[in-house]
Amino acid sequence: QVQLVESGGGLVQAGGSLRLSCVASGGTFSNYAMGWFRQATGKEREEREFVGGISRSGSRINYADSVKGRFTISRDNAKNTMYLQISSLKPEDTAVYYCAADPTRIFSTPNAKLYTYWGQGTQVTVSP
Q: What is the largest CA-CA distance in the chain?
């Protein structure tokens, strides 16, 4: 069973930065396409927003239009870890951030339903 654990969230002021981490265990990390999603307060699980994703090797990365230029995704397969570097944070970035793993595809997909494994999430709160 694959387990994903996110960390790095917190309370920051608008304009600040954070780096989130997602550590995987129980499987072969390099076999998973990975994604980052976020869920704002009051939204249902089905409304989780795709932030971006990275292919198994890390060669292909895609982002939601709303975060392009501010969010950077990377992975270190030797450390079983994926990262999300967030800069120029805005209050509307406030959400619980989740990482997810898809063992069936080489490249990431924005469709949350296609991810098999999920972490518990880490809260990011951005104050004005």
A: 40
Structure tokens at 18: 């954070």
Q: Is the dihedral of CA 90, 92, 96, 100 positive or negative?
A: negative
Beta-ladder partners of 63:
52
Six token digits for residue 36: 């980052």
Half-sphere exposure of 30 (CA within 13 A, CB side): 6
Q: For residue range 54-96, what is the model confidence (pLDDT) as tens digits?
A: 999 999 999 999 999 999 999 999 999 999 999 999 999 999 9
CB distance 26 to 1 below 8 Å: yes
DSSP bridge pairs for 79: none
**DSSP codes joined into one string, 70-116:** TEEEEEEGGGTEEEEEE-S--GGG-EEEEEEEETT-SS--S-GGG--
Distance, CA of 97 to CA of 119 (rounded, Å): 9
- For residue 95, how many other CB atoms are within 10 A of its CB? 22
Tell how many helices (H) and how many strands (E) occur in the chain.
Answer: 0, 11
